[in-house]
Amino acid sequence: MMYPPEPFKIKSVETIKMTTKEERAQVLKEAGYNTFLIPSKKVYIDLLTDSGTSAMSDHQWASMMIGDEAYGGSENWYHLRDAVQEVYGFEYVVPTHQGRGAENLLSQIMIKHGDYIPGNMYFTTTRTHIELNGGKFVDVIIDEAHQPEIELPFKGNVDLKKYQNLIDEVGANRIPYICVGVTVNMAGGQPVSMENLRKVKEISEKNGIKVMFDATRCVENAYFIKEREPGYGDKSIAEILKEMMSYADGCTMSGKKDCLVNIGGFLALRDQDLYEKATSLVVVYEGMPTYGGMAGRDMEAMATGIYESLDFHYIEHRIKQVRYLGDKLDEAGIPIIKPVGGHAVFLDAKRFLPHLSQDELPAQALSAEIYLDSGVRSMERGIVSAGRDEKGRNRYPKLETVRLTIPRRVYTYSHMDVVADSVISLFDKRNSIKGLEFVYEPPVLRFFTARFKPIE
Questions:
Q1: How far, in Å, CA of 14 to CA of 52, rounded?
Q2: Domains in the chain and their CATH numbers?
Q3: How high is the mean pLDDT of the chain?
Q4: Environment class of residue 10 by beta-carbon count within 10 Å: exposed (0-12), middle (13-18) or buried (19+)?
Q5: Which of 19, 81, 88, 300 pairs with 45 at a CA distance of 20 to 30 A?
Q6: Choice among 35, 96, 124, 252 that is catalytic
Q7: Could you confirm whether 124 is annotated as catalytic?
Q8: Catalytic residue, candidates 100, 155, 377, 381
Q9: What are residue 52's phi and psi, to 5 degrees?
Q10: Global pTM?
Q11: Are 382 and 401 in contact, with CB atoms under 8 Å apart?
C-alpha cells in the first residue's frame, strides 16, 4: 500500500503539549469521563471529530479578507450559492450555521406526525430531528453494515428490498423522503455505490418519494466510487460528485467536513415550493436567507473550500492517511470496522473489551482509557450515542465503537503512529479496563454532555 505524502506544506503551526498521566487522570475525572467535556488545551492529539477541525488553506484565509458583512444580499452569499449550484447541481440553496440547522429545516418542512423516514443507518442529530417532528426513523441499510468484520466495497448501500418492503407496509404517502448518508458515519464512514444511488432514486421516483442526501462527506464517497466502482476510474472527482447528486432531490450539508471550513452549512433543494418553506423558517432559527447564521467571511471561505475539495491529490491523501492508521492497527490485531472508511478508524469495542457488557458502556470506557494513556481524544459511538427509545429504554446498537476521527490537513503520519502505539498498548492490557455507569444523563443527545464514573 502506498501512502501519499502530504500535498501541502506547513505555513503556520500551533504548539501542542503532552500532559502527564496524573494530570490526565484528574482532567478525566473532572470531565465525568466524557471526552467531549475535556478542555482542548489538555488534549495532545485531538481525534474527537472531523467537524469544523480542518486546517484552512492560504486561499481560504485570503478569501476571508473580502468578507461582506451586509445583513442582506452579502456578495459572499452569491459566491457560495454559485459554488453549490456549479459543484453539486442544486438550484436552490439555504445557508445555515451548520449541518444540524439544515436537518432542522428539512425535518420541519417535510415531516408530518406519523411519517416514516427510511435511511442507511441512523445518525444522532438526524434521527433526533426526525423524532422531534413526529417521524419515525427506519434503518434500511444492508445487513453487512452492522457486522464489523465483513469487508465490502460499498458497505453503506441501501438494502433495496428493505426499502421496498417499508413502502409496501406503510404506504408511500407516509414516507416523505428517504435520507441517504454518503458516506455512512455510524457504519464506519462507509460509502454508497453509484449503482445503489441510481436504484434508490428509481424506486423513490416511482413511488413519489423524495431522495435527500446527508452530503456531509460526499467528496469522500466520490473518491471511493472512483477507486472501487467499475467505469469510474477515469472520471474526475467533480464528475462523479455531480452524477451522485443528480440522484437526489436535495441534501443537507455540514460545511465543517468536506467543505473544509470551521463553521457553516446549507440545505440544497431542487423544489421551489420546499425552498420557499425553508426560507420562511430560516429567518426564525438561523438568520436571513442570504447568510443563515454565517458571517460573510465564512461563506467566502466555504465557497473556496468547496472547489478545493475536488482536488484529487487532496482527497487521495485524506482517505489514505485514515487508511494508514487503520492498516497499522489491523496489522497489530486490533479489532476495527472493516474496510476502513473515509473519515475515521472505528475500534470495535465489543471485541476489544469482551469482558464488559454493553450496559457497562465499553466504548465510552475505552475512549476514556485512550485519553488517559496518551492524551489522544476520541469519541464513543455505541450505546451512549444511540440514546433511548420513545419508552425510555436504552437502544442497543449492534456496533459498539470508538471513533478515531482524523481532521483534514491537520496531522501527519507521525501523529498517526502515536495514536496507533497507544491503542496497541491498551489492547495488551485490555482486561484491566473497567466499565462506566451514568452519573448524569440529559434527555436528548446524551453523549454530548452526559457524565460517568467507573464501575467499582
A1: 16
A2: 21-50+312-454 (3.90.1150.10), 58-308 (3.40.640.10)
A3: 97
A4: exposed
A5: 300
A6: 124
A7: yes
A8: 381
A9: 75, 10
A10: 0.97
A11: yes
